[in-house]
From TrEMBL:
Residues 120-157 form the Peripheral subunit-binding (PSBD) domain. PANTHER family: DIHYDROLIPOAMIDE ACETYLTRANSFERASE COMPONENT OF PYRUVATE DEHYDROGENASE COMPLEX, LIPOAMIDE ACYLTRANSFERASE COMPONENT OF BRANCHED-CHAIN ALPHA-KETO ACID DEHYDROGENASE COMPLEX, MITOCHONDRIAL. This is Dihydrolipoamide acetyltransferase component of pyruvate dehydrogenase complex. Its EC number is 2.3.1.-. CDD domains: lipoyl_domain. It comes from Peribacillus butanolivorans. Residues 1-76 form the Lipoyl-binding domain. The lineage of its organism: Bacteria, Bacillati, Bacillota, Bacilli, Bacillales. InterPro entries: 2-oxoA_DH_lipoyl-BS, 2-oxoacid_DH_actylTfrase, 2-oxoacid_DH_E2_comp, Biotin_lipoyl, CAT-like_dom_sf, E3-bd_dom_sf, PSBD, Single_hybrid_motif.
Length: 425
C-alpha cells in the first residue's frame, strides 16, 4: 500500500486546497496518471500517481485545506499485500500534465517523444534538458520514485554519458556520439562573467539577520506621503543657530522626535515578541536605530533614550555615530538594543520600498527622496515639497489601522512642526 502525502509544490508552501479529484475510489490507475488538482498560494499543480494500482482511499474532499506532509490518498499496488509504505516528495514538485491528454502512438511522430512522456520530471527540468540538448529518456533520476531533478542533468553531462540528437536525422532520430559539453558554470567562469566572493563577516551577519527577520515576522508595508515645506522653513530658520553650535542640522532629528512622540501613543510599534514565553513586550524606553550605509554593509547605530534629547543633541549624536560607523569604530553597546529603526534612503533616491524589520523589533520606517510635486489643495493644483515614507510592521502585533494612525500622527507632527514643541515631554 502506498500512502501519498501532499508535497511542497510551491517553494516553501505550508498547505494547499484540494480543487478537483480526477479519479474515484476503486479505480485503477497507472504510474504518473493525474490524480488530483491542488491549489497553493503560488501555483496550481496536478499531482500524479506514484505507482500503478487501485485507489483504495481518498482522505479529503474537494475544497479541503491540507497541510504539507499529510496523506491525501492511498494506492494498493498490483500484487501487493504488504503493509502500507509512505510516498513523500520532499523537494521536487510532481510532474504536471493535462488530465485530458491521452497518449496515442499514432499521434506521436517519433519514438523518443513517446518515451520522454513517460519520464518523471518537472516541466522546468524538461525545459532545461531541451536547452542542454540532452535526451531526457537517457537520464537516470535520483529523485523520489526515480524522478529526474536538475542535478541529474548536470551529472549526466559531466560524465559524458549522453548522445546528442542529430537534427538532420530521419524520423528515427538516430543518436550520435557527442563530445563532452562543459557545464554552464564552467562556461561563465571561463569568460569572466562571474566573480565569486565569500559571504563572511558583517555581510554574512546581515544576511543571517535578514533571513531571521523575514522568516519569523509576517511583514506588511504601508506607504504614505507628507508635505515638508513647513519643516524645511523651520530647519532653515534654525540653520544660523545650529551653525554657531557647530552642529549640522538635517531633517532626521525632527523625524526621530516625531516618531518617539507617536511611539508613546502607539505602544505596539515600540514592542517585540518573546518567542520563548509567547509574550508581547511593550517597551517604555525609546532607543532609535539609524540604518547607516558603510563600506562593510548596513550598520545600525542606536540613539539611546531619544525621548530625553533635544533636536540639536540628536543631530550631533546622529552625525558622530555615522562617522564612527563608517570608520568601523562603533562599540557593541552602540549597535544593540534598538526598539525602532529608521532607514533614511532619501539622499540616495527612490519613491518607496518594503524595508525589512530589524528583528526582533515590531516596525521600521523608511524615508525616501524629497522633491517638488504637483498636489491638490482646496481644489487647486499647487507645488509642494513632498516625501514618501514606508512603514513595514509586524502583523502579529500591529493591525493595519494602527499602522495608518501611527503614520498619520507622524505626518501631523512634521507637517505642523510647531506641534513638536507642544508635544515634547
Amino acid at each position: 500500500m502506498v500512502e501519498f502525502k501532499l508535497p511542497d509544490v510551491g517553494e516553501g508552501m505550508h498547505e494547499g486546497e484540494i480543487i478537483k479529484w480526477l479519479i474515484k475510489e476503486g479505480e485503477s490507475v497507472t504510474q504518473d496518471q493525474p490524480i488530483v488538482e491542488v491549489q497553493t498560494d503560488k501555483v496550481n499543480a496536478e499531482l500524479t500517481a506514484p505507482a500503478t494500482g487501485v485507489v483504495k482511499k481518498i482522505l479529503f474532499t474537494e475544497g479541503d485545506i491540507v497541510e504539507v506532509g499529510t496523506t491525501i490518498f492511498t494506492i494498493q499496488e498490483e500484487n501487493d499485500s504488504s503493509v502500507p509504505e509512505t510516498f513523500v516528495i520532499e523537494k521536487e514538485p510532481p510532474v504536471m500534465q493535462p488530465a485530458d491528454v491521452k497518449v496515442n502512438s499514432e499521434d506521436i511522430t517519433s519514438k523518443p517523444h513517446l518515451e520522454a512522456a513517460r519520464v518523471l520530471a518537472t516541466p522546468y527540468v524538461r525545459q532545461m534538458a531541451r536547452e542542454m540538448k540532452v535526451d531526457i529518456q537517457q537520464v537516470k533520476g535520483s529523485g523520489p520514485a526515480g524522478r529526474i531533478i536538475e542535478s541529474d542533468l548536470q551529472q549526466f553531462i559531466e560524465n559524458n554519458q549522453f548522445k546528442q540528437v542529430n537534427d538532420n536525422n530521419n524520423d528515427n532520430n538516430i543518436l550520435q556520439d557527442a563530445a563532452p559539453i562543459e557545464t554552464v558554470q564552467e562556461k561563465v567562469m571561463e569568460k569572466g562573467l562571474e566573480e565569486r566572493i565569500l559571504l563572511k563577516g558583517i555581510r554574512k551577519k546581515i544576511a543571517e539577520h535578514m533571513v531571521k527577520s523575514v522568516s519569523t515576522i509576517p511583514h506588511v508595508t504601508h506607504v504614505d506621503e507628507l508635505e515638508m515645506d513647513r519643516l524645511k522653513e523651520l530647519k532653515d530658520q534654525l540653520k544660523t543657530y545650529s551653525d554657531n553650535k557647530d552642529i549640522k542640522l538635517t531633517f532626521l532629528p525632527f523625524f526621530v522626535k516625531a516618531i518617539v512622540i507617536a511611539l508613546k501613543e502607539f505602544k505596539t510599534l515600540n514592542a517585540s515578541i518573546d518567542e520563548k514565553t509567547n509574550e508581547m513586550v511593550l517597551k517604555n524606553y525609546y532607543h532609535i536605530g539609524i540604518a547607516t550605509n558603510t563600506n562593510d554593509g548596513l550598520i545600525v547605530p542606536v540613539i539611546k533614550n531619544a525621548d530625553q534629547k533635544t533636536i540639536f543633541q540628536l543631530a550631533d549624536e546622529i552625525r558622530q555615530m555615522a562617522i564612527q560607523a563608517r570608520e568601523g569604530k562603533l562599540s557593541l553597546e552602540q549597535i544593540t538594543g534598538s526598539t525602532f529603526t529608521i532607514s533614511n534612503v532619501g539622499p540616495i533616491g527612490g519613491l518607496h520600498a518594503t524595508p525589512i524589520i530589524n528583528y526582533p523589533e515590531a516596525a521600521i520606517l523608511a524615508l525616501h527622496k524629497m522633491e517638488p510635486r504637483m498636489v491638490v489643495r482646496d481644489l487647486e493644483g499647487v507645488i509642494r515639497l513632498m516625501m514618501n515614507m514606508s512603514l513595514s510592521f509586524d502583523h502579529r502585533l500591529i493591525d493595519g489601522v494602527t499602522a495608518v494612525r501611527f503614520t498619520n500622527r507622524i505626518k501631523e507632527l512634521l507637517e505642523n512642526p510647531i506641534l513638536l514643541v507642544v508635544e515634547m515631554r
